[in-house]
């Protein structure tokens, strides 16, 4: 975080004031994702002007007593004294959201940006500037995960405080585990492959959900380390299967990793080291990856396709991708989001939507995979629609990769 000394100093003063007066205060971390894109599209001078405009919008939306600090290219920290409760802090957040409802002026082209923010309160959410800022940041991550614009830190949320050094050491020492969740061929009714999933047991927290440590990795430099570990750990297990089995294995890639130099070469090199055919690997990316950096994503994915690696668009149907995006991307398959699949039986319109997506994908020569199959009725519906593949707890829960390999080698089960 930039400007840390000034930010932490101001928060520390409020901590001392609370000790004397009992006055509560809040720390709000606000990120404006569109600011960086202004710099990339129109130049850094325009980007700096947009940042200054955003800073002024934030300041004008708040009380004179509130303090605003720059904390990065697209981030700000706001200190809100005299907060009666978390609702009082949420009112400040609402004013900030309203301030950005109109496009930013003062730039070459008016640009609409949407802020995302997280809030932590003193004393209940932390005794120190460091703890309060980290928990406000965790609340921001939670808001982004939920698709919301503002969230207050909640200790009971699924988010846990991840210690950087512990996760880094766990990756370096190969303390994470690879789990495989089976992917079924719905037309032939047999296992066709698996999705590779990372699992981590922390000394401090026990079993930590990927929903916690993967976003944490993406916010730090650990995402490259995690991806490199995932690729090699997955391929090590895949290499023990005879190529004649014809299984394919999916590996999730973060949008941050896609844009890293040398990513394609690293993946191809790992395939060569482990002796795994590129056609046996599917790189999974989410819909939001397509929108965040269209040009870079297209270039990288085309290079992967040129090497024979397949590309799956994950969580399709609930995000931002459109047919126009699909037309440009060298994808080979669509993974239908589980929220659609789970609703099919009780919502006829959703079932029609799923059928339409399957038909559209097939017309575009794309394979379809349905996520979240929880019962036989859903499996049968999807098979009748012509959906190619599926996964879900009914078809098989994630299990240690070694167990999957041993079980599949011994005999192919049926759901």
Using brief descriptors, characterize the structure shown.
8-stranded mixed barrel; single chain; EAL_sf; 17 helices; Bifunctional diguanylate cyclase/phosphodiesterase; TIM Barrel; Alpha-Beta Plaits; 5-stranded mixed sheet; 2 domains; about 425 residues; alpha/beta; about 20% strand; EAL_dom
Task: Break the fold down into its secondary structure elements and pairings.
Blueprint: H1 4-21, E1 25-31, H2 34-42, H3 44-61, E2 67-70, E3 75-81, H4 86-99, E4 116-122, H5 129-146, E5 150-152, H6 164-172, E6 177-185, E7 190-202, E8 206-208, H7 210-218, H8 222-238, E9 248-252, H9 255-258, H10 263-274, E10 281-286, H11 287-292, H12 294-306, E11 310-316, H13 323-328, E12 333-336, H14 338-343, H15 348-363, E13 367-370, H16 376-385, E14 389-390, E15 399-400, H17 401-410
Parallel strand pairs: 4-5, 7-9, 9-10, 10-11, 11-12, 12-13, 13-14
Antiparallel strand pairs: 1-3, 1-4, 2-3, 6-7, 6-14, 6-15, 7-8
Low-confidence stretches: none
Mean pLDDT: 85
Shape: globular
> Helicity range of the residues?
40-55%
CATH first level of the largest domain: which class? Answer: Alpha Beta
Largest β sheet strand count, sense and barrel closure: 8 strands, mixed, barrel
**What do we call the CATH homologous superfamily of the largest domain?**
EAL domain
Beta-strand content bin: 15-25%
Protein name: Bifunctional diguanylate cyclase/phosphodiesterase
Domain GGDEF: 23-156
Organism: Rhodanobacter ginsengisoli
Domain EAL: 160-412
Describe the model.
There is one protein chain. The protein has 2 domains: 4-152, 2-Layer Sandwich (Alpha-Beta Plaits); 164-410, Alpha-Beta Barrel (TIM Barrel). Helices cover 47% and strands 20% of the residues. The chain contains 17 helices and 15 strands. The protein has helices at residues 4-21, 34-42, 44-61, 86-99, 129-146, 164-172, 210-218, 222-238, 255-258, 263-274, 287-292, 294-306, 323-328, 338-343, 348-363, 376-385, 401-410, and strands at 25-31, 67-70, 75-81, 116-122, 150-152, 177-185, 190-202, 206-208, 248-252, 281-286, 310-316, 333-336, 367-370, 389-390, 399-400. The strands form 2 sheets. It has an 8-stranded mixed β-barrel, surrounded by 6 helices. Strand 4, helix 5 and strand 5 (150-152) form a beta-alpha-beta unit. The N and C termini lie far apart (49 Å).
